[in-house]
Protein 1
Amino acid sequence: MALCIIQVKWNPMEAIELGNTGLRAPQIGFGCSAVLGRSGKNESLRAMAVAWDEGVRFFDTARAYGYGESEALLGEFLRGRRHQAVISTKFGILAARPTWWKQVAKAAARKVLATDPSTHALLQKRAASQFSHGQFTVAVLQQSIEESLRKLGTEYADVLFLHAPPASVLEQDDLLEALGRLVETGKVRIAGISADPSVVELALRRRAAPLRAMQFPCNIFEISAALGLVKLSTGGELLVANQPFGGRARVKQCGGMLESLAASGELDAGIREKLVTVDDALLADVMLNTILRDTGIHMAIPAMMRAEHIRTNVRAISESRFESWEIAEIRRVLQLRASAAAVANQAVA
């Protein structure tokens, strides 16, 4: 009798419950902020494909990403597998309509960035002028969700976030009621807010209905603020950390911080030994697990467009070199350092 061997593709990440929202996904999501922005169509599709093959199922986009076109490309990629994916999108920032000369300018900017990474901040500043922020009206919400669903090629969004709103948006009862109606009709499964920690904190303190998903910047320099938000949550909200690497400059700072931890006496010798050789894999391991491991934060969403970065980030979660107690110790020391730095800054001020 012939032996039949069936090969099953290994999925390195297990899906977890995302609060009590009814959604499930692995802890690493795919941030689409660079899709059709600093990355072109082919590069973006390749990155999505690598992420999918690595087990990523949560895709975070926005009406404004890619100058209004990121959602359409994500919808194209997810065609035929939408039922396996969790999609979050955002409204409140409007992108200027793309014209042929802007498309040419975008392509030229990508080439400049590829040859001279130091131009990133300047190009970011110029790109910011193409967006209209603070568009939080019921009319914009209704138009935006219809446009998002059309471009995504889906009948519903799993999560719809208010995109970088001021705290005053929590006083807009008509807007929050309109969001609630979208949830009731099924066009949106979960409504939420993507904002600075101070605004998210206020939303959590007020238990602002219907907001059940909270997205906020979080990296190892700001972990204490993020953990403060976790304490304020009921335990049922979806908590999402964006910008987990803190940007290009912060990545370099993280490398220096890990080197200083390895050389200090603040940690167990076994942990310090694991921190000696700082490379991309170690950075991802410490930065992502410090945010996610046993904190109550459900997911981190890096904007990862290179295949090697995607695989490194996934392996950081699925094959971490650190035990849970070691991550807890690293997090404790980082929090102590951050507190000491804050006290020192206050003294200078």
Note: The radius of gyration is 21 Å.
Protein 2
Amino acid sequence: MTVSILILARNEEANLAQCLASVAWSDDIVVLDDNSTDGTAEIARRAGVRLIRHSAGGEREQRTYSLREISFKHPWVYNPDADEVTPHDLRDEIMKTAADPARYEVAYRVRFKNMFLGKWIRRSSLYPTWVMRLFRPEKISFERRINLTYCAEGPVGFLRAHFLHYPFNKGLDSWIEKHNRYSRLEAEEGLEIMNTSDLRWKELFDRDPIARRRALKELFFRLPARPALRFVYAYILRAGFLDGTQGLTYCRLMAMYESMISIKMAELRRSARKISM
């Protein structure tokens, strides 16, 4: 048994060839292209993979379409983003896991190494972060509009190997443009969380790393001076300074992102007050 590959892409000509090369071991690779205007589709065609061009609107809708409307050759799907590379040790673990009939899990989370300016920024990127990448598609659904939550209908396991993440391959301008869009959605979500739910204090100390990360994020939405706190937490408390110049630059960029979220939350509050007057 092997594993099907699903890659969602939009204007990923800087990343897609490298991603595809790292999963060429699969005999069923699907690229779902969201109306790219660069060379993404042509790269997929040259690689000989299945290319499907479709746009469902938002990320949640597109990912739901990918699992409900696409037929895969194999029961297990590995779902890397276009800016991710799958090393050989992770490939071997994926193949072994999918071929084991005794496994009762329906999905698996994987850690990644965040690469920035040619270096793994382990400390300043708040490693480890676990994300869903291997699953049985019929068992997966999605929640939230930004930083989607993968919901599995059954037990979830954890793989030991890592994939490599290259979020800056398209350049700093592209990263800033993306995070400018994301910050608006984060601001809307943050206000919704603050207005509709209490902080889950117990989850801050939960053994589940996913629950801890979610609770920490919700706590951050409620704190003053978030940009400065984000920098201190990552650069000092998590020893991001040990990542050298790359760590300092990355921590400054993430503090800038927190500033964008904070400013837009304040802007949304002002707009809401004007409407209610």
Note: The mean pLDDT is 92.
Protein 3
Amino acid sequence: MPYPTTGDFVTNPTYSGSFIPTLWSSKLNAKFYKATVFGEIANTDWEGEIKNMGDKVTINNVPDLTISNYTVGGTLSYQVPTPSTITLNIDKGKSFAFKVSDVLAYQSDIKLIDTFSDDAASKMKVAIDSTVVYNTFSKAAAANKGATAGVNSGGIDLGTDAAPVTLTASNVLDVILRLAAVLDEQNAPESDRWLLLDPLTRQLLMQSNLAQAQYTGDASSPVRNGKIGGIDRFTVYVTNNLPRAAAAFDFKSGDGSEGGVTAVAGAPARRVLVAGHKSAITFASQMTKMETLPNQNDFGSLVRGLNVYGYEVVKPDTLTFAVVK
């Protein structure tokens, strides 16, 4: 018990630690990245020194060089590389604020920092993951989506709003292989590929041939060990934060906070499966404010925090998605 509920009020309990904003800020940021899907699938190469909402990070793209045939004694043609940049805007934020009725009692139990940071990280995970995936998945290259996907073949059906692919236990692996083939045609690296699935699609996978260990190369069946693991070079993540659409509305974010207002006549209920390479999306997040203030109306403190973040699709060629029902 951190402080007595009866008897004399204890004003100076023994500390096991103290509430230090910077300590909690670093704990919360680390736990957020550990929990969030985008802490795993997106790169943070240009995170830089984020200090406030409104910061900008300039990303320099490597220009494409032309490869020419060489003839002995021939004249070389020198290319002038054209540089280009992408701006990563840190223009979004999530905050929380709460009261601590007795700050000394709070300070006496440092474990509460872990408890509160776990909860805050979990809540921010849902809010930020849903926002990021909703605003990035459709920015895949034109050749990486639709009923005629494939930059070379144009023959890979990944579904459309009007005609989503109907998923079953017998074809769910095939759809995943289609996503892999689209990335293959774009020469996406085979390492660091990822795949986002919703729980219903995971259920179909568990009813498919994936249940047999030899199809995954694992020592045991995913049904037995509870893990999907890797499928055809993809590291698979199951999340509730993928965009979805009811029969009469456009896609909305996984937590329902964005979209879902544009009518789509005759469109069936549908959802998306998103795949890509870690180079496709850059993501930056930082706890920039972690403060305690005196509570002017009570004994204790007010605690508040601000997490600022930004994201950008920097390589649309290594991003793809399937529209399914």
Note: The longest helix spans residues 111-136.
Protein 4
Amino acid sequence: MFLAEAAGGEILNFDSVQVYRGFDIGSAKVPPSDRRGIPHHLIDLIGADEELSAGSFARIARQTIADVTSRGALPLLVGGTGFYLRAILEGLSPAPGRNDSLRARLTRVGQRRPGVLHRFLRRRDLAAAQRIHPNDAQKLIRAIELTVVTGRPATETQSLPRESLQGYTVLKLGLSPDRAELYQRLDRRTAQMFNGGLLEEAQALLQSGAAETAKPLQSLGYKQALAALDGSLSLGGAIRECQTKTRQYAKRQMTWFRREHDVHWLNGFGGDEVIRQEAVRLLLQWRQS
């Protein structure tokens, strides 16, 4: 928020869990009372049992960027879901839409036979299989869906020309803190989430009618909270599993963003004063160029 204050900006979220209403603690949403009067967008867009494709998110985000700009404010995109950011800035390939019946069959197969989806994709599209983690069911299913529906590798379909964001220049700032300290902070944050009401939040979502299989309830933190609630994991076990998977996810995030071009990497945490000063300097310099 310090960048928004320094440059007259409004914050646009691109975290894939913060788009869901009621998923506050586990997604680390900034409470409205802590937003310092700075408008926050693309948060609480849909309910737990709804789905928002990356394409739909990108369309909403681009309209929001235009609205913010029309008011003379600076759109500041903040988050950690790299695919959402790429969809906003670069667009998505003109691929076919969802095939729900095929997805349902693939989901059942993947649940009955762990690893089979990744093995299938390796045979049909080795490049996609090498890019997608074997446990990332969502991306595996989408890649197989594209392969089956189009009759050609998903990699080929996804390489078709895209419609990028037009009329804007972009400054990308990335944080690259010390890995060991990052992991320590992630471990502490995970424990704080569980001790600060995550179980109660997950229970409230179930009581409101959200299905346990709903996509956001299968995300990091919420999945472990459900396991603690049904007794399949102890509270300590849920915390430890979430800590481990959060560290693994952070590593994958960094790998993704390191492939992004033209990123100004800041070697520290966003709360470090020297990092804040450098970020503000880069932003103001970029606005003047």
Note: The first helix runs from residue 2 to 7.
